[in-house]
Write a structure and sequence with these properties.
By secondary structure, this protein is an alpha/beta fold. Helix content is 43%, strand content 17%.
């Protein structure tokens, strides 16, 4: 996919996987809109890449619609990447009692509803794009997690939300195929994101040894490179791709 006359929208673009993706897309020639709940982070990334910052909750219609409109105002929206997500832990039945229902709902709202919010609004605009030479009009890349398959103890909310992202990928791709709009999901393993920086160096080192090869944490730039690889290969559609160094999560 040629980004020389295209815009891209990245949610969660203020840090981690999203920031790396926004930077990579800008280098590839796209005009990038960065949506994030953190105003300072969104504006910092947008300023760094010559993009546009939009602040808001991914699960709310108004800020997402504003971000889509901002992207379309720059150039045809060809790529949307959902990187926003949260991962609080909570046991189904722990020492403090049953899992907080509001917390479960919040995780599903941000991770799953937020992803679908981007998908529905971005895809609706992409279907109106002029088709490229190969028939493509756009691409939506969602972010799940290997926890969708091997959720660990304390991850019921997170695993359920990411499992939902995996489940919506194929039906969305089937529905949008007639318009030339692709839908692909990435399921990352353990990546060095700002969340990891809250851990001790010893904890990060231990986690880094879990993938089989390479035996280290993934780098956000590697996620971003995979997004560009998906964009470059039109045969990738309706699939969830693990990006995890052959890691399979243990129960805990």
């Amino acid at each position: 996919m040629d980004f020389s006359n295209a815009s891209a929208l990245v949610t969660g673009g203020g840090s981690g996987l999203g920031a790396a993706t926004a930077e990579a897309l800008a280098r590839a020639g796209a005009k990038v809109v960065v949506l994030d709940l953190n105003r300072d982070a969104a504006e910092a990334v947008a300023a760094r890449i010559g993009g546009v910052a939009v602040v808001g909750d991914v699960a709310e219609e108004a800020p997402m619609a504003a971000a889509v409109e901002a992207a379309c105002g720059l150039a045809p929206l060809r790529l949307a990447v959902a990187c926003a997500g949260i991962a609080p832990a909570g046991r189904v039945a722990g020492r403090q009692g049953p899992h907080d229902l509001a917390l479960f709902e919040r995780v599903v709202r941000v991770n799953l509803v937020g992803t679908f919010n981007l998908l529905r609004l971005a895809a609706a605009r992409m279907t109106q794009n002029e088709a490229l030479a190969d028939g493509q009009r756009g691409l939506v890349v969602a972010t799940a997690s290997i926890a969708a398959y091997e959720g660990q103890i304390g991850q019921c909310a997170y695993a359920a939300s990411k499992g939902g992202v995996v489940a919506l990928t194929l039906p969305a791709a089937r529905e949008l195929a007639r318009f030339g709009v692709r839908v692909v999901t990435l399921a990352p393993g353990l990546f060095h994101t700002p969340l990891m920086d809250t851990l001790t160096p010893e904890a990060r080192e231990s986690l880094g040894k879990m993938p089989l090869f390479p035996a280290r944490l993934g780098q956000p730039a590697e996620y971003a490179a995979m997004v560009l690889a998906i964009a470059a290969n039109p045969l990738l559609n309706g699939e969830t791709i693990r990006l995890d160094g052959a890691l399979r999560l243990p129960p805990a």
